[in-house]
Amino acid sequence: MSRQWRNAFPSSGVKRSRSGSYPLGEGPLALHIENALGDATIVVDPRADGIQWMVEGKAEAVDRTDVSCVDGVLQVIHGGRRSLFGERMTASIVRNDDVDVYLTVPRRPANAYVNLALGDLEVRGAEFGPATVRIGKGDAEFEALGPGPAALADADPHTPGAPAGAEAATESVVDVKMGDIEVGTGGRLRLSTKAGDVDVHDMTGDVTVKVGAGDTAVGSIRRGDLVAESGLGDIHVGVPRGTAVLLDCHSSVGDVDSRLTAGEPDPQAPRVSIAAKTRLGDVKIGYA
Question: Which among 234, 202, 235 is positioned nearest to 219, based on CA atoms?
């Protein structure tokens, strides 16, 4: 979607790439990525030998992209720090200065911040998070997004790259202005998009979803509490059989349909709750 939009601008200049690597010490790793125009792909691969990076795009834009790794903080900055929605972003679009970022890291970052003004984010491999992700226009896709139990066990407010006085992160936040969010497996998440769909295939912890216009789908809620709110769109949730469910569902204009069997739950059954509300759309709860 965003790539097609970018291609509407005529491209000029020679395309090229830069790449490199950094050794990874024993301490925690933090990621800081800011890209005014372009996609980002992150792979968490325990087999990787250190940190591998590559930036690819028009030669001039690639040369202006800053890549560094100091004290456990890997930074990739294209378009100017904290100015992605201002003059530098506008200049990048006019010049079609898109730069795609590719990273491979050998273990889950203890702290991650990703800010894309116009571009897609794809995260593959082992669990990613806690993380803060903000996208202006583009899609966000995660194979596994946390933090999970292992991340919570070693959560540390003194992680490199964390703001002074910060508390240890206990959730991941993904905020998209226009675009879709897809999570393969995840829990302890706050997901929001003003215009787009949210799809969580396998929910393993608390998840809050807020959608302006778009559909929400949770394939299977195995653990945790789901709070889903949509202004315009449907909400579909699947529940594994044998799970005790507390439902609070409402639609101002639309149908609310639960296909779950009523009855006294087994005291040993896993328990989840679903609070789903849409102003215009249907709410459907069924078995996964």
Answer: 202
How is the chain split among helix, strand and coil, in percent rounded to 5?
10, 55, 40
Chain segment 175-232, per-residue pLDDT in tens:
999 999 999 999 999 999 999 999 999 999 999 999 999 999 999 999 999 999 999 9
- Dihedral angle of Cα 237, 234, 138, 178, to the nearest 10 degrees: -140
165 is written with which tokens? 């006085």
- As a whole number of angstroms, the distance between CA 22 and CA 24 comes to 6
pTM above 0.85, yes or no: yes
Separation in Å, CA 114 to CA 202, 209, 232:
23, 19, 27
Q: How confident is the model at residue 24 (pLDDT cuts 50, 70, 90)?
A: confident
- Placement of tokens 């690639």 in the chain: 62
> Residue 226 has which token pair?
């789901």
Contact 277, 230 (CB under 8 A): yes
